[in-house]
Amino acid sequence: MPLVKAFAGLRPVAGRAADVVAPPYDVVNEAEARALVAGRPYSFLHVSRPEIDLPPGTDPYAPEVYAKGAENLRRMIADGVLARDPGQCFYVYRLTMGSHVQTGLVGTASVDAYDAGRIKKHEFTRPVKEDDRVRQIEALNAQTGPVFLVYPSDSAVDGELARVAADAPEVDVTARDGVRHELWTVSDAATIARLTAAFDRMPALYVADGHHRSAAASRVCAARRAAAGGHREARSHDHFLAVIFPHDQMQILDYNRLVRDLNGRDEQAFVAAVGAAFDIEPAAQRLRPARSGEFGMYLAGTWYRLTIHPERIPGSDPIGRLDVSLLQDHLLGPILGIGDPRRDERIDFVGGIRGLGELEQRVDAGDWRVAFALFPTTMESLMAVADAGEVMPPKSTWFEPKLADGLVSHVLD
């Protein structure tokens, strides 16, 4: 079974992509989703966040929500807004955010490879979110939210994608956030065969984002195989919808921290405690770390540069060397008493897309006492953690730009 496989995508017909494409379901809340669909009856949020078409306060995990999503998808097909390609295709997908450009492949990735660890994970999943994605796939009989995968940059694949993207795109849409989405269809059998073979030669792919979607696809596949009596005839549920980018084109932004109090210390005592593991110096302006091991701290209206003492950085531990780990292990945990950042309500996380001004505003408002700006985790660090079979600390990576929902979906047979 191929690691990555072409498929007959369900996608907007010519001229309708702008009516359909929407942000990923998990980056907008219900109120934001309701606002975004105003005047847009074919926005894919009607499929991915169907509670917006039900009374406010509806439980997003209620059976009628999944049923409404399936109804909306059928309506978009019946109205001729979405149609399925007649043959097996790959799709080249380019995202442009300001000066940043990344070009990848839309295909379907092997569930068996995922289960065997050849498609590598780096996050824990939450059962409630897995269950939600399983119910969504089953209700729609389709995978509509692509899993964001990364491959180690490969000249054969990179070259094929660049060659296809040299032509005019079939889809060219700029979303409300300013991100440009372009799509090309690859239906040529020879190109499909070359791309399939190139991916099959790769030792591994990496999940960048979409751990719940990939885990849900694995569960759906297992359930359908069991229902078929264990027969292993190839079926569409053997693969899951994915967008795969080369690792050296990824843009990971900082994922910053806010803490509600100083754990019983006054400011002077807190700064003194921090000095046990970090060099501290005031900064004249907002401090965005320039390298690993450097942190910005905003406290009482002042920015500080924190530089961890070199002897505190583990030599060979791929997790312990991460900036999120260094901050947690030498400051948030021992000094501020944040033992479990996944569950402690005294800490909050702010994606770098919001800027350092967001940290200042929230501290200055008085609800949060101190903020920390981190150097972004590198893709190489993420891959090293995944290769070691380990799990990243919570809120370690913030990928930008985000994929669009609705450009291509994978219908199950």
Question: Which short descriptors sum up this protein?
Answer:
globular; six-stranded antiparallel sheet; 413 residues; Conserved hypothetical protein from pyrococcus furiosus pfu- 392566-001, domain 2; nine-stranded mixed sheet; 25% strand; 13 helices; alpha+beta
Task: Characterize the structure shown.
The protein has 413 residues and is α+β, with helices and mostly antiparallel strands. The chain has 2 domains: 4-251, no CATH class; 255-375, Conserved hypothetical protein from pyrococcus furiosus pfu- 392566-001, domain 2. The chain is built from 13 helices and 21 strands. Strands 1, 4, 5, 6, 8, 9, 10, 11 and 12 form a 9-stranded mixed β-sheet that branches. It has a 6-stranded antiparallel β-sheet with strand order 15-17-16-19-14-18, with helices on both faces. A 4-stranded antiparallel β-sheet has the order 3-2-21-7. The longest helix has 17 residues, at 211-227. The radius of gyration is 23 Å and the shape is globular. The mean pLDDT is 95.
**Low-pLDDT windows of residues:** none
Using only CA atoms, what is the Rg?
A: 23 Å
Structural class: alpha+beta
Q: Write down the overall geometry.
A: globular
Helix content percent band: 25-40%
Number of E strands: 21
Largest sheet: 9 strands, mixed
Topology:
Blueprint (H helix, E strand, L loop, with lengths): L3 E2 L3 E4 L4 H4 L9 H7 L8 H4 L14 H16 L3 E3 L5 E8 L2 E11 H6 L2 E2 L6 H14 L1 E2 L3 E5 L3 H11 L5 E4 L5 E7 L2 H12 L4 E5 L1 H17 L11 E8 L5 E2 L1 E5 L7 H8 L3 E6 L10 E6 L2 E7 L14 H10 L14 E5 L4 H9 L5 E5 L4 H9 L10 E2 L9 E3 L2
Parallel strand pairs: 6-11, 8-12
Antiparallel strand pairs: 1-5, 2-3, 2-21, 4-5, 4-10, 5-12, 7-21, 8-11, 9-10, 13-20, 14-18, 14-19, 15-17, 16-17, 16-19
